[in-house]
């Protein structure tokens, strides 16, 4: 639990129920009944996405960033390479695997490669893992990153032991409202999201899910949402931190709405989320990489651009680096 000086808003910690499961910040159950999952799968995948897309060329991520700024390089899905002004580098939910699945031969497959190859990354100082779903916690990627740099890895409660058993020791677990120091003296606070976490059908909601509010040592802050549905928790986060220079907000995986509205936002809701979070600039993510749900590939970006009005909500190109004030 953490009290901010801005206006006394409290980030409430997550609490397990008698069965060891976490609930959403509004108290709702985190995972939907399996019969609803079965109905959603029965409806099919929706429009077929193209395969084998190439990423357009972009300059490499900047080696230096002006004071008060950060560079955000969109690798794909929810993976960003973030460089702060002092040179500290952060990866969010890194996934470089061909599929987001427990299998190498089955499950959602990339329609385009990562915009930065794993071997082309600069030194990584910290990794933020929002939750345990396969498209956010990719074990092969995390093992490779750990073996190469031993970065500090932050995640939600209930994940550290699982990661250690899979070759990624030393993860720091956080409850909602808890903070940990990042290399360079920066600070990350785990914040509540309306979603759930699981690796299979028996561990649903037994580990925690959330986003990360990162406060730079020299001032400024940004938010990595991870995955979320709409809700009042976003307004609480915006008030608690006094807003953000930049927020990384998902815009895809929302169809069919009757099922996905409990775990993801539509592009229009993403625009509302930016306002709730009091984010000066928002960057879209969680689109155009893996076909997870029924919407057409180009639909999330198109709907976002139509809905954003005068808000500074951008759709980054795959591999594009944006240097923004935080």
From TrEMBL:
Residues 88-287 form the Metallo-beta-lactamase domain. Pfam families: Lactamase_B_2. InterPro entries: Metallo-B-lactamas, RibonucZ/Hydroxyglut_hydro. It comes from the Bacteria. Residues 45-64 are annotated as: Disordered. This is MBL fold metallo-hydrolase. It comes from Sediminicoccus rosea.
